[in-house]
Each structure stands twice: as structure tokens, then as C-alpha cells.
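Per your request, structure below.
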């Protein structure tokens, strides 16, 4: 079974709600209209269809309508997901969602009562005689300090502690490098937590100041393993900022998924999806907008993130 995550870069519908970014208000000079919307749906569907996951987590989906429209396009392109969910309890500008070929039971983890934080989507999937808990994340961007991402991490960790020894998979856009504890430490803008990070310290993907590995995962019941460490260091990125690769998207597994019993992560199956068409002139071929005298969507490109995925067996 293949499980993936993909930040699709702002999939907005064509209904005006008042929460849109300026460039996604429908039918303005920006040309976010039926033509460009259909192009965006088609392009994202192309990527997901080629990736062909059984379950895929999505980030930056505006609404249930946008998710349904993507699902319809996927079905036209030959990939059918009977089950779907979106974290829509709060009217945040964009939301996290899930598409699945397997029945899912979902709820939302509320990350504060304000609209500033996106809720986390929790899905329970029965696989054989076991359950897999999937948590879809989209934490606060690095335009703000680490304390904002710690807020989401603590809500997630509290839920994991309550669940106990279960199969869980944390995935999505954490807006944190897989080794954020090393990369942010000297950045005053980000480090307002005295070196503590959400992804490494709160979720415990590090142990005694060292990254948790597949082998050491069994030594710590509260720890988790970030699958980026399965790839060579130079390949550990899904997004680029000013030309530098960052592993902002992650798949993180629980100890129970590596105990060689029942439901299991297939070791070394983790990868990023990077076919040539997702690049142009050496850069990730993100959704294109012109910034000349008349700013508008061109209907070309995909997303500023690459999908990542892993294989599980049961």
C-alpha cells in the first residue's frame, strides 16, 4: 500500500468566500477563472495519477468543493478515490485533506480556537486486523518563529500520548526541516524557543541530541522516525527556498510500524516523486503567475512542492 503527501500550492475553488488570497478571488484581472481552475485541477491530477497512491494527504485545499472537483478530475484520469475528508471545521484560508481507496474514519484536532492555525486531520484506517492512525499536518510557515509550530506539535503529541502504542503515521507540510533543530539554531527570527523545535523535540524524532534511526526507534516508545533519513543527504528535500533544498514535507512513523509484526513500514521504500516534467530550467515547476504590468495566472505549472511517499504492508 502506497501512502503519499503533497502540498498542491493553493487549490482554490471558484466560489467567493471572502477568505481568498487576492490572486485567487474568482474572475478578476488575476484570471483565476474556469479555464485556469480546470488547468490547475488537470495538472495536479496528472501528478497524483502518475504517482498512483492508495492514500494521499493534501495541503493547501481551500474547500470541500475544491477537493471534490479534484476527485472528479482524478476519476476522469483513471484514479478513483471513494473516500475523502477535509479539515473544514475552521474557515482557514487553506486546509488539509485526504483521499483514500480504503474506508477512513476521521476527526479534527483543533489547534487553538483562532483562524491563525490550521487544524490537523486525523484518519483511522483498518488494515487487516490492525488500525493505522494517519495525521495530516500543515504547520505555520517560517515567516513566523518556531514557537508557532510548537503549538501544533504539542496538540499532535498530546493526541499521540492519549492513543498509546498504536500504528501512526504523521505526514504533511510541517514547514520544518527534518533536522530543524540544527538548521534554525542560529536564526534569531526563528529561534524564540531556546533551541526547542516542534518536529524534533516535541514529536521526539531526535533522542539524546541525535536523530532517531530505524534501529534506535525500538529503544524509545515515545520516539518517532522521520523517513527522510532513508535517502542520501543531498536528496532530502521536497521544496526549494532561494535555491536551497528543504525537507519541509515529512513522513514520520511510530515504533510499532517498525517492530516487524503485522502492519509495517517497508524499509527503504520512502522516496520523493520527481519526474522530469515537475522541473523547468532546473527549478521545481510551480504553478505559474506572471508579475508584469498585468499580473495573472497562466494555467501552467504544478506546485512549489514535490510529493513524497512510502510503502506499507499488512
Amino acid at each position: 500500500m502506497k501512502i503519499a503527501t503533497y502540498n498542491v500550492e493553493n487549490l482554490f475553488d471558484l466560489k467567493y468566500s471572502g477568505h481568498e488570497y487576492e490572486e485567487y478571488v474568482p474572475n478578476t484581472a488575476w484570471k483565476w477563472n474556469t479555464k485556469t481552475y480546470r488547468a490547475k485541477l488537470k495538472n495536479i491530477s496528472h501528478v497524483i495519477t502518475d504517482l498512483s497512491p492508495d492514500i494521499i494527504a493534501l495541503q493547501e485545499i481551500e474547500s470541500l468543493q475544491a477537493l471534490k472537483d479534484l476527485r472528479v478530475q482524478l476519476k476522469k484520469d483513471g484514479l478513483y478515490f471513494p473516500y475523502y475528508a477535509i479539515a473544514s471545521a475552521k474557515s482557514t484560508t487553506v486546509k488539509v485533506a485526504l483521499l483514500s481507496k480504503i474506508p477512513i474514519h476521521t476527526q479534527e484536532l483543533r489547534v487553538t480556537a483562532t483562524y491563525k492555525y490550521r487544524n490537523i486531520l486525523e484518519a483511522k484506517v483498518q488494515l487487516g486486523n490492525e488500525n493505522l492512525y494517519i495525521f495530516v499536518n500543515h504547520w505555520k510557515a517560517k515567516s513566523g518563529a518556531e514557537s508557532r509550530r510548537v503549538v501544533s506539535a504539542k496538540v499532535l503529541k498530546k493526541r499521540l500520548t492519549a492513543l498509546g502504542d498504536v500504528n501512526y503515521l504523521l505526514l504533511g507540510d510541517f514547514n520544518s526541516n527534518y533536522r530543524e533543530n540544527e538548521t534554525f539554531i542560529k536564526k534569531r527570527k526563528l529561534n524564540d524557543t531556546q533551541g526547542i523545535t516542534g518536529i524534533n523535540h516535541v514529536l521526539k524524532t531526535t533522542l539524546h541530541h541525535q536523530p532517531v534511526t530505524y534501529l534506535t526507534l525500538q529503544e524509545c516508545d515515545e520516539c518517532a522516525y522521520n523517513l527522510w533519513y532513508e535517502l542520501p543527504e543531498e536528496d532530502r528535500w521536497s521544496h526549494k527556498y532561494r535555491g536551497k533544498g528543504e525537507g519541509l514535507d515529512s513522513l514520520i512513523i511510530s515504533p510499532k510500524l517498525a517492530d516487524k509484526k503485522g502492519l509495517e513500514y517497508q524499509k527503504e521504500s520512502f522516496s520523493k516523486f520527481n519526474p522530469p516534467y515537475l522541473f523547468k530550467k532546473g527549478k521545481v515547476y510551480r504553478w505559474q503567475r506572471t508579475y508584469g504590468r498585468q499580473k495573472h495566472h497562466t494555467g501552467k505549472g504544478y506546485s512549489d512542492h514535490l510529493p513524497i511517499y512510502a510503502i506499507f504492508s499488512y
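The radius of gyration is 19 Å.

Regards,
D.
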